[in-house]
Each structure stands twice: as C-alpha cells, then as structure tokens.
Design goal:
heterodimer, A: 215 residues, four-stranded mixed sheet, two-stranded antiparallel ribbon, 8 helices, 11% strand, B: 187 residues, alpha+beta, 4 strands, 55% helix, flat
Chain lengths: 215, 187
C-alpha cells in the first residue's frame, strides 16, 4: 500500500484482469516503477461469466482500492500514476500526459478492432494493412515530433520524469514490435525512449519476471 | 493570478468539443469558441498536435483529445473531483460514455455497408447501450443514493460527457432513459 500521511493507513490495491498484458499492463508497469505492492489477480476464462457481474461495467481491468472499484484502463493507470507521483507536475503537464495517453489508447483500440472484432479474414487483412501503412506511421510521426518538443526528446514524453504516457507507450511498442521488429527505425527518439522505459528501475525487474503471454 | 486565455478549436458542432465548452460555461470562464467549416480543416490540421480536433489552446499551449481537454478545464475550475479516487470515479464514467459515443461514431461514419450499419445501430440501441446505462445508473446510485452527481458532491467532467451522450441517444429515442430514473433526473 502507500502511506497516507494524514491518516497513517496503508491502502490495499488489487488489480483484476485476465492472464495477459493487455489493458492492465500500464498500471502494472506503474506499480512496478514505484515499488508499490498490489495483488496482481489474473482471472481464468471459466470464472469470467460470474466474475464480471461484480464489476462496475462488467469489464476488466478493475482496480480495487480499499474495496472501491475503479474500471476503465486509462482511469486506472492515471489513478496509480497520481498516487505514485508519475502523473505530471502541473495541471498543464498532466493535460499533456493525458492527451498522449488518449492518442495511444485510440491507436490500441484501432489495432484491437481488426485483431479481435473483425471476423471476416479479407477485411481483417485490409484493416491490418491500413493500420500499419497509414494509421500507425501517422501516429508515430506525431509522437516523435511531440517527444522532440520535450527538451529535445532524450528524456520522457512529458516533463522530466516517467509518466503514465510512457507506460502506455511501452505497452503499445511491445505489441507492434511483435509484428514489425524494425517499426521504430524511422523514429530514433521513440526507439531510444522505449529502451529508456524498459530499463527504468522497477520496470526493468518487472519485465524480467512478469508472466510471458502473447499479448 | 491571471486567468489564462482559452481557445477551443472545433468544427461548428457540439461533437467532441461540447464537454469542454460546457465546463468553461459552468465556470463562467470566457473562451474563444473557434468553429471552422469543414473546407477550412486542411488549414488547421497541420497546426494540431495530432492532426485532429478538438483542441484546447491554453496561453498558446495546445492540448488535444476531448477527455484530456475536459479534465484540464475541470481541474482548473474545481470540477474534477476532490480526491484522486473521486477523479478516478469521474474518469471511469467519462471513458465508459466515450466508449458508447465511439460505437455511434463508428457505425455512423465508418461503416460503408448500409445493412451492417443498420445491424450495428440496432445492436447498440437494443443491447449495448441499455447494458451500459444500467451500469451508469448503478454507479450513480452508489454515490449517496444517486440524487447528486457521479463522483463526489458536485458536477464534474463526467456529467458533461454524459449530457453529450444523452443529447445524441435521445434524438434517436426520446424515452431512452425511461428505465433509468436517476440518470433521467441527473440530465
């Protein structure tokens, strides 16, 4: 838990998700970066039909904080970031972090659409091609540019330290690198950022020991 | 402290800019409400951080992404929840509502096949939307009986997103909230 200075009580964190990285991993990376203990619950698919009924929107991930349930992966990661001081220092910095996270979320959703929701094989391949030929390069170009506006781009995405935007970015990177290992070759600052996040204290150890899952 | 100069850039529509406009209005904060015609968009697009609208310009800094914009204004105007947990509760509603809005946008603008479009719309109004309205009603009720707001004891960015969703869905079905009395009263 985290020490609440006012009440001297430790909070208890439980993260509910399936046994994959998916939409829980940004929060897991943030817990790891802060060395903040939490229960990393991984639900089996057979449990799911009953399990979901107790969740606020019948979806995962859910972060339970002393019994209060927060759903929606972006809201969860932001909360963990705020508790651990990785959300951005000023309101404006936080807004910049938020906008980058939302941009990454959009791209992940678009990818998820053809991977999981498109049943027609021909349309699936068309969408995958459009994703890798158009959507993703446009997005990565914007991000390389936005990263460079932050003190030349040799640090993190926003401000001076790691934020939840970087956690999300690593998760996207892990995914797209599986399809195209050289996807970052036109984007040197982003490539270096990925390595920087991978070797961040706490995250480095987590990456070495986390369950290995295909996604 | 000097109030920052706010500009909201969007098309001449409520769309994804309206939650932010509502929050600025709720706080009585003046802002330049820049609305461009569709033909003018190619001029604006390259200036936007991710080539998209809406964008909120705050003393020259550009923030894109509708939820990020709204949350920033909410925070600046004291309507983002009083604790981290309250803000997370507001945020999760915003995300859930955005998921619904995105489904509508997808079938309306991105589905070229008329039959599939009608199927998706039907599935949304018959199944997905009622399920989520049920979740939102339950979450509202969990907050002190549901006669206030989604998070804490005041209006937050969650309400502005919900109102925008309501405006779209009620056009299709004016009785869309008949099974959700607390949500209807909230609107």
């Amino acid at each position: 838990g985290v020490h609440c200075g006012a009440c001297r009580k430790m909070s208890v964190y439980e993260l509910h998700y399936f046994n994959n990285r998916g939409r829980a991993e940004p929060a897991r990376l943030l817990f790891a970066a802060a060395g903040l203990p939490y229960r990393d619950i991984r639900i089996q698919s057979e449990q799911w039909p009953e399990y979901k009924l107790k969740l606020p929107m019948h979806q995962v991930p859910v972060l339970e904080v002393d019994g209060t349930m927060i759903c929606q992966s972006v809201a969860i990661a932001r909360y963990v970031a705020k508790v651990t001081g990785h959300a951005g220092k000023t309101d404006l910095e936080q807004a910049k972090v938020d906008m980058l996270v939302d941009g990454i979320d959009d791209v992940m959703t678009k990818k998820g659409d053809y991977v999981w929701h498109e049943k027609d094989e021909t349309r699936k391949m068309e969408k995958k091609t459009a994703f890798y030929e158009t959507t993703l390069p446009q997005f990565l170009s914007h991000f390389e540019k936005l990263l460079r506006t932050n003190n030349g781009g040799d640090g993190f995405l926003v401000g001076e330290g790691l934020t939840h935007a970087d956690a999300w970015f690593l998760c996207l990177a892990d995914d797209i690198l599986l399809d195209f290992p050289d996807i970052f070759s036109p984007y040197p600052k982003l490539a270096a950022l990925v390595e920087r996040i991978r070797t961040y204290p706490g995250i480095k150890e987590w990456l070495a020991k986390r369950p290995q899952t295909p996604f | 402290e000097k109030m920052p100069a706010y500009k909201v850039y969007y098309f001449n529509a409520r769309g994804r800019a309206e939650p932010t406009r509502l929050l600025l209005a709720a706080a009585g904060v003046p802002f330049e409400d820049v609305r461009f015609e569709v033909e003018k968009w190619p001029e604006y697009k390259p200036k936007m951080p991710m080539g998209q609208a809406p964008v909120l310009e705050v003393d020259g800094t550009m923030i894109c992404q509708s939820a990020a914009m709204a949350r920033f204004v909410a925070r600046e105007t004291g309507r983002a929840g009083k604790t981290n947990l309250e803000m997370a509760q507001a945020d999760m509603i915003v995300n859930g509502v955005s998921d619904m809005i995105n489904i509508m946008i997808d079938y309306h603008y991105s589905e070229p096949d008329e039959t599939r479009k009608a199927e998706k719309k039907k599935k949304f109004f018959d199944t997905t939307l009622p399920q989520f309205l049920g979740h939102f009603e339950k979450l509202l009720v969990a907050n002190n009986g549901g006669d206030g707001f989604f998070a804490g004891d005041g209006l937050t960015h969650a309400e502005t997103f919900f109102l925008c969703l309501y405006e779209s869905i009620s056009k299709e079905n004016p009785n869309v909230l008949s099974a959700f009395p607390k949500l209807a009263a909230l609107v």
